[in-house]
Request: fold
Amino acid sequence: MPLLRHIIALAILATLVWLGLYLHESLGRQTSFVLIGGAAFGFVLQRSRFCFFCILREWMEEGDTRGVLGIIAALIVGTLGYLVLFGAWVPDPTAGFLPPRAHIGPVSWVVLLGGLCFGIGMSLSGSCLSAHLYRLGEGSWASLFALAGAVGGFMLGFAVWNRLWSQTLADAEATWLPSILGYAGAGALQLLVLAALGAWLLTRIRPSAADSASATNSLAGIWRRVMMHRWPAWVGGLGVGLIGTTMYLRADPLGVTAEFSRHSRDLGTALGVVPERLEGLDRLAGCIVSDTAQLIGNNGIFVLSMIAASFAAALLAHQFRVEKKPPRTLISAALGGVLLGFGSMIALGCSIGTLLSGISAMAVSGWLFALGMVAGIWISLPIRRKILG
Amino acid sequence: MRLLLATVLGSLMPLMAMADGPLVDTDWLSANLNNPQVRVVEVSVNPGVYEQGHIPGAVNFRWHTDLVDTIRRDLVPKEAFEKLLSEAGIDNDTRVVLYGDNNNWFAAWGAWVFDQFGHEQVSILDGGRKKWELERRPLSTVPASHRRTDYRVAQARPDLRARLSDVLAVVEGEREADLIDIRSADEFSGRVIAPAGVQELAVRAGHIPGAVNVPWHKAVNEADGTFRPAEELREIYAAVGVDGTRPIITYCRIGERSSHTWFLLKHILGYEVKNYDGSWTEYGNAVGVPINNPSGRVWTGT
Reply:
């Protein structure tokens, strides 16, 4: 069996390489870079189990702060990376231009509400959207229920969008911290806040046996350390921050909901529940966009490549398993999925697109989403315990 | 050694010479990237493409904010245009080379704006971003920074722009001109009001009476986005009765793509031509003006 796992993993790698070369010729270098980025992202998420919900739940329920430190690490690296790019692309942040494509969303209670719904959806469904995707690669078929629920949630979000737009979003500002404080001011403020949060979490860290285990210097030891053992969360965080920066440099900011929401929107329009015209949506930067003629757009390639790489990594780490799930888990996953979809639609992205890419871009909307999401998890964890036991 | 130097210089000289024509090719531009008399300007449709890699030394003009007055639906005011060019280090005698994505649509539109402000030396990079990338020429992400100048608009040329009244004068037979509609055949015939996914619409479908339909892309080589040779272009328009003996007015939906046709008719073929930037979103919505709708589907929702 181990041999079979290796053969399948190798076949996935070979397919990804072939696809990358093919896409380079047919659709251009940006698309092939998106494929590589997706694969790297899926690999890093799987290896470090970078699941926003698991991380925050471990902190809230078990007092284990290591995972949250990984998120902080991702945000610090992302902020630094974005600062480098912004400095080159927008010479004067106070001149009134926003950096192209960056996920700087409207500052409004709608984003906060989106985060809150998303947080509750995470509790009920077991993780955020990006983690459902990488866990799909680990054989977690309950994630399919969550993703199906998310399709319904997206449609629900699109259905109420025009009302939200005319009531509040049309007047909301997309606030970019550097446009107020300059790069030095905004960068310093944000990094200080992140460092303070990190320092506070560090005081609560508990040393564990796994952390002190060091790799032997043999090839087999390194293989085990990299390909079999779970990476420390901060290593995953560094990887996520770095991938976020390079993706923004070469393609689009990190996000996993664009393609998903696009197809949900098409489906909703076909079913007659989503209006033909969604006001103002095309003007807003984020994960919810409507253009692209390709059947599978860049974001779709990113997500599929991410699932494939996670599958290969899970096989090699002996972490691919298909388990039996009780019906209430599946129902809870689907209901949570609806909230995930709804929350990320009205907030124009999820924990990756709005929180990670947004905070990296020093957008106030990213912080609002984070606040809502953490609160949402906090209030819904007891419900989760009641439902799932 | 001296012979070698002479040969190298000899072969470089023609490339280094100033281009006089409306089009420059990628070889010429590569050889002139460091020429202080040349300033390369990218005008692309898609935000972010400049930032992710542009022709080294090029500056970025955002068509939707830098070159228009967003509130009046008008060209950028003269003072703002002067400031923009001064900050880009462009002098009145600088040769400006425009290029962009999507077959130079907006680069051509930029050339129309430059022409209206009377800038003398404006060229388009033939094939634009598409050809430059196809040839695998280097791109840069380093932002361009050039010494500030003090640009002054010498003499504006408002005659390059057609207004609704000019178009109506032609429709009602008070003035002679050839109207060229560069939109797709379906928009022209009135089967659709606008291409799929487009937000700006008109309440009626069809075209301006008397207009001929030559979709803009007929003028380019699909492989690399370059303009077809002048002789071929002359024939394409002559085939629909436009031969330059009468003034011409080009239009499309919002007046940007039609600049592409405007540019080639004016600068490659040397015809007298205006661009009607109000285009179908103005004409098709105007009250009390005649339209032609061969498909019989005049109103929205019918």
In short: Residues 359 and 367 of chain A are 6 Å apart (CA to CA). Chain A has a mean pLDDT of 92. Residues 177-203 of chain A form the longest helix (27 residues). Chain A has 16 helices and no strands.
